[in-house]
Amino acid sequence: MATTPDLSEHLTPTGLRKVDNFRGMLFMMVGAGLIACLHALVRDVTQELHPFEVAFFRNVVVLIALTPLLLRQDRHAWKSKRPDLQLVRGVVGLGAMLTWFYTLSLVPVGDATALSFTVVLFTSLGAVVMLREKMGIRRWGALFVGFIGMAIIIRPGFHEISAGYLWALGSTVLWAWALLLVKILSRYDSPVTIVFYSSVYFTPATLILALFVWEWPTWAQFGELIAIGLIAALAHLAMAKAMQLGEATAVLPADFTRLLWAAGLGYVMFGEFPDLWTWIGGTVVFCSTLYITYRESRAKGPAEGVTLKTTEG
Q1: pLDDT value at residue 205
Q2: Is residue 113 within 8 Å of residue 39, measured between CB atoms?
Q3: pTM, whole model, 2 decimals?
Q4: Confidence check: pLDDT of 210 > 90
């Protein structure tokens, strides 16, 4: 029986890197599409169920889905060296998730997605304040351009800013704070430990909150809630695989397809489509974050790499 030849043996290191980057981009595009589907489903189901209840189902399904993976890890990795920081990260991350789900109940999926790109901007700004990281004039310039893009999306002074957009900005700030805490925690704990503690904190906390607003879902809604959790788990795995395979500066551009997916799903499911200013602003913000990521990778070197995380809920 014929076997498939291992082409990697015939590739140069540069060729292997290009192949890995291409595979990473494919995984990133899959992750971006999954996140857009997640956001669309959350927007749909939160029209009838409270975001707290939706968040609980999301967390419990993710915990169940990832438990077999966690059980295969070294049990010692489950013990945190900084449980105090894990608790703070859990509180901040929970606030980010709940406010994001509430945002999706108010804001069109495409608009929310465009604003979600600002997480990198707030993370970079927070790194200067919290971690005392230094940024050169070019990265400061890119940061300034990114916030101009954010202003283009919201357009203050040209039309009334709805509460949903304010919730979106508040959520992105919380996500950025949570990412910075993860960056600090990574000095002490493994990624498995961080994921485990997040699930441990998120699930019971959202259950308690959901009990105050509980409504038994219909079978159709229950199916959507299960799908939200499974898609969230798959999106995590796809984006993690993308970052494992390729360089951040190579795979990051594929994340922009999330806006395309979100716009398409928003139009098909809700008859919503981002206006021209949202497309312009979202593109400006994304290009800014892409340049910031590129400069960060140059400053740190390929060994350290760049961590990519977007608002996904």
Answers
A1: 92
A2: yes
A3: 0.85
A4: yes
Write the CA distances from 82 to 79, 139, 184, 239, 263, integer angstroms: 9, 31, 10, 26, 41
Cβ within 8 Å of residue 85, ≥6 positions away: 181, 184, 185, 188
- If you count them, how many residues does the chain have? 313
* CA 175 to chain CA centroid, nearest Å: 8
- For tokens 């259950």, the residue is 207
156 is written with which tokens? 């203050």
| C-alpha span between 97 and 108 (Å, rounded) | 17
Categorize the per-residue pLDDT at 158 as very low, low, confident or very high, splitting at 50, 70 and 90.
Answer: low
Burial class (CB in 10 A: 0-12, 13-18, 19+), 23: middle
Structure tokens at 313: 């809920």
Q: Express each pLDDT in 213-250 by its tens digit.
A: 999 999 999 999 999 999 988 888 888 788 777 776 67
Q: Where are the domains of the chain?
A: 19-300
Distance CA 176, CA 168 (A): 12
* pLDDT, position 309: 53
How far, in Å, CA of 27 to CA of 243, rounded?
Answer: 9
Alpha helices in the chain (DSSP H): 13-45, 51-71, 83-106, 109-116, 119-130, 137-154, 163-185, 191-211, 219-245, 248-251, 257-270, 276-300
